[in-house]
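Model it.
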Amino acid sequence: MNSGDSHDRKSKKGGHYKMIRFGTGGWRAVIGKDFIETNIRKVAMGVALLAKAENNTDKPVIVGYDRRFLSDTAAKWIAEVLAANGLRVLFMKRSAPTPLIMHTVKKQELHYGLEVTASHNPAIYNGIKLIVHEGRDASVEDTAKLEKIIDGIDDKGVTFIDFDRACREGSIELIRNPFNDFIDDIIARLDVNAIRERGLRLLFDPMHGSGTYPALVIFYTTRCTPDIINDNKDAYFGGAMPAPSEKDLSDLSLQVVRGDYDLGIALDGDGDRLGIIDSNGRYIGANEILAMLYYYLHEYKGWKGPVVRNLATTHMLDRIAESFGEKCYEVPVGFKYVSAKIEEVDAVLGGESSGGLTVRGHIFGKDSVYAASLFVEMVCAVGKAPGEFMAELREKYGEYVMIEDNLEFVPAAREAINKTLMVDKKLPSFGRVITKVNYEDGCKVYFDDDSFVICRFSGTEPLLRIFAEASSADTARGYIDAFRAFLCL
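Modeled.
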């Protein structure tokens, strides 16, 4: 289910309202349309009732928020409902990245955490992410329970208490310095000496998001020299998407070259996705970051073990793992699946082409603050520029070029597309031998030369995403064009 969309349902008064549904990144909705006070409080009421139903009221719930429009206010509305319904609340005094909330839930052994965020979505969106025991993304089973509870809540059944009053009475506790444990745990995992000896100059772009403070503290502590852009709070994210994609990092690329920086580092709006610019201004996306970090951790640091990727992430990881005598595990899109598989098979790291990753022993979710720090360590320890290091991997494992199209469609077309691909299982003619088709999460077609194309609905926006990877951009583009023509998009 697309978390940016909702089903209509008849109300008891005969009208319609939007049902709240959680996708791969939580519940997300357009501000002022569905992301409104009534629905936000309903979600909080649902969490309170879920906690009571599962006998999980003995520990506080941590509530955090990013720097989007309405996030801080929405977080207060959530806290007011939780406090009025017998749950203690730990409330972030300042905006915080999602991985910090996950880390706190894990570190303090809490049952639940809530982050108000729409991550990398456009500025008109906001949302709520549910984090559960051990700091994990809520499972499909967890969110299904919550959705059912929310569906049964009448507007008049939502109770809340004034925020300031709850603070005075102690049911809401303000956390004034929540970053210490998170930052200290990351620094303890780094080869600080290697970074200090190199002394990189960095241009840091937090994209107006909430990952600014912890990343800067780590850069300064490890004796990097960071300059910063786009660190102010901006409800419109400077007119761009708060996503570290090649398109939205074009200005960072120009400034890295102009300022003669060693690296440009960008985090998305809530600090769980990463993009890198090398000293030549070249964009380094998640697929290359994952390949380099897996090779570095396995071969340079001796972290033996497999790797995990989702269906839409580079197959270069498969070849690297194979060369190590390891295995690459493929899972559906949604980081909950990546983190669960990492734990199950004791993988070195896992990630996805959209920019999120985590490593063994860290939190069970994406963390671009740690990923950026680890990438800086890798560059310093290996002693090679990222482009040089990546060129060596291409020489060993071949070219893997990925292209992505994100396509809008009218709501009525969704059912027809789904029927064609997932029910009738019809495919375009690609002019290449197909070795397998996977319908686990969308439609993924594997070819005999290790290339692939996958077509799936976004779990966070009303979009159809088509990813293709091949040994050349022209071949990958041909796969996408075949799908577009076949689906009349």
